[in-house]
Amino acid sequence: MRRKWWENRRLFLLFLLIMLVGMFTIFINEVTQNQHLQQMSEFQLYTSQYENAQSIELNLDNILVLRRVNPFAHQVQIKLANLIANEESSDLTALAQQANIDVVRQEWKKAIDEIVHYKSLVHNRIGQAMDTMMRDIRFEKATTIYSLGFDIVLTMLLVFFMIKEERGQLKQTRRALSQSESRLSAAMMNLPVILFALDASGTFITAMGKRLKDIEIQAESLIGENIYEMYTDYPEIIAHIRLAMQVTTNEVAFTDQITFNSRIFEISYVALDEDEHHHKILTGIALDITEHKAVEAALQQSEEHFRMLFEMNRTAPAFLVDPKDGKLLNVNEAAIEHYGWNREEFLGKNVLDISQISREELHTNMLEFMNGDKERSIYEHRLASGEKRLMEVYSAPFYDGNRQLLYSVVHDVTARKRMEETLRLADVAFETADAMTITDEDGIILRVNQSFTKVTGYEQHEVVGKNPRILQSGLHDKLFYEHFWESLKNQGTWEGEIWNKRKNGEIYPEWITIRAVKDETNLIVNYIATFFDLTEKKVLEANIERLSHYDPLTGLANRRLIMEQLKLSMENARLRQNIGGLILIDLDRFKYLNDARGHEMGDVLLSLVAQKLEGILSADAVASRFGGDEFVILMSDLANEKETAWSMLQYATNDIFQALVGNYPIGDSMYALTVSIGATIFSNNNQTYEDIVKEADMAMHVAKDRGRNMIVLFEEEMMTATENRFSLEEDLYYALDRNELELVYQPQTDHDGNLRGVEALLRWHHQKRGLISPERFIPIAEESGLIVPIGEWVLKQSCLLLRQLIESGQQVFVSVNVSPRQFHEANFVEMVMGIIAETGVDPHYLTIEVTEGVLIDYAENTIAKMQRLSQLGVHFSIDDFGTGYSSLAYLKNLPLNELKIDRSFVVDMMTIPSSEMIVETIIAMASHLGLSVIAEGVESADQVRFLVERGCNNFQGYYFSPPLPYEKFTAFVAEAH
Fold first, then answer.
1. Hey, which bits of 797-874 come out as E strands?
2. Spatial contact of 799 and 841, defined as CB atoms under 8 Å apart
């Protein structure tokens, strides 16, 4: 029973031990597996980096045999192969650039550095991997000592399969390396290089490369051969190899150049201390530079040829330029001759010294030339003399050894450019606004411009090869063209107006200039015709003619044309012994229509009058608008006898008067027109046309003076009166300077005779003519403008009187008449204010009398002036109220103080009912408007009583006092006081 328990305990312990061993084994396996996985991850990471690196990655074995290269290294070797093997290129310069030996040397040194680095790295990593693998195997073998039973067997099986698996992976790795080595060997056979390695004794341990076959040597035959024995003919190479063995650094030790089997090789050596016995290994690369040397030789020969051509070229200036800074490195003799500087002066210059460009533009152009983006440009160059010339520069890159320069050839294109500009301008000039035609010596058309087509309608292809006679209108006879060609051949030119025919058959006028072109032998080779269409010019001339001779508003002849017609009529009268007549018509009060209804309405009336005149006049009569509202009728042939002529003129003027006077529709209303007509006759006497017009004008003004709306025929007495009037105007001009003017004063009183004011009246005492009535000289002063300085003198004298009256204690008003001409002066208000300030009077006692005409003319300006003076205190009175023709509505807008009843109404008010009614109306109106009223021209007590009964209490007239000179007036004032 106890034995059984003991056996059970041993079994339990054995089972427990097996379990512990199994668990320990599992733990050890897990640790081993984790380490193995970590190692595999590191190996995969290294493989990925090896395959994707952007530098040369090589895999070599322990004796430096190249086993594998990464993709980047493979690309580099293909690039080098393509670079060096480009033997078929005919461009020696380009090949020289591509096969630049320095590039190969640099790539080789870089490759050696990469080989040294990665050989060591790969060798160490493979060794570490193998050591680790063996340690793992040994460890796993050791763990089996502690296994028992099934666990031991299981552990041994695991170890066996693990070792088998690692050996399989090792074989697979060796197979991959062998394949990589084969691929690398095949790739190396495509490069024009030889790779080899020597041990310390100089024995070849490896050799490969395409050029081995080119020199009839097999790579296998070199392995095991000693280089010292093979190259006894090259002692300098043997010496270099021995020295290279002694170099301690992994750098290119020596570079040799040898010729073997007609091939030239450049050999570079690198010493490596990396075999299995830590002995020196010498690696080398032999680069076949046979083609490169041939290229160098050809390039050198090409450069020699270039320099020979550069120096011997005496036709085109040439330069060698440093593209970095634009410095001139060399010039040829042609440049020296053309520019004027010697070689030493040239070589000290920069492109900027001779070319008129900026530094930035120079830099840009240099880059474009060097990159091949530009071949030529045109610049302005400066010569040694200071002259500027246009140069066409052709530039291209040029290689001088290792230097890249810019080769430039220039051509002076100044003359060519000028010629091109001349031709361009000639071509532009040909396509001018004027039509042009070029023919040969026979007159056959060679070329026409667009203006020709525009004028004639013919396209160029329709007329080239034809004679210009296709344009003839048929209006010129044969003799015309004979003279035309005779002038053209003898004088070489013809110019004039000609009528031609367009393509559509329309005949038009043109002004043409034809010139003959002769060659050096003075023979005519071409004809050049320039012409322009005169149609518009003719129309324009007709319009100008009409505008210059006809009134644009009425269409009647204007002043200029009627004067020309009058001259002709007077000449005909002299030749034919007949008598003509001239009628001058003036529209009465036309100015008031313009002011009241506007100038547009005035133009309507003028047009209607012109239409009536054209409708009533005979064919031999000429109507004209002479200016403004005046019309002139010229009748060239009235009669041969003077009395008959006056009768015919009288009948004609009566017909015109009857036709014109009447109502005219102006806007929405009818306008009642009256006219004043003056007429005269002319014959074969010594009168001028100005005299005839003056006579008609005098007669018309007489009609105006007699009350308008009538006909007056000229009389000789009118000329005398006009001459007297002119003489009177001339004397009036000097009246102020001669102290011929004086003021008289007429008192203004109430019905009891009390003095309330005084009116200053102007008188002229002529030195020779005596006292001249105001009715004679005041209109002359108005028309001549003399009223302005005379009126200023009157106002100043009146203010001096007013100051005297105020100082004497008299509070009376002084009234001064102001003419419309004076009132409408721009500085009228300033003039009045200046006199008030100068004389120091109280403006409240100054009354300015104006007529209704002043109020109507320039209404807005009039109101503004009156308001300014009224604010100052000046009073305003309307003189001769009721005699005007205007509306009374304006009274409410004016700052008025007084209305004066005109003398004509006062004289007739007691006998004529209409005058009585007007007087009563004025008094009532003044009362309603709050204005005072004064009657002038009162000459009897009955008139005073009549006026007082109707509400008028202020008077001025001879009943109370006539106008008094200064001394008598002062006495009157003193007596009244």
1. 813-817, 846-850
2. yes
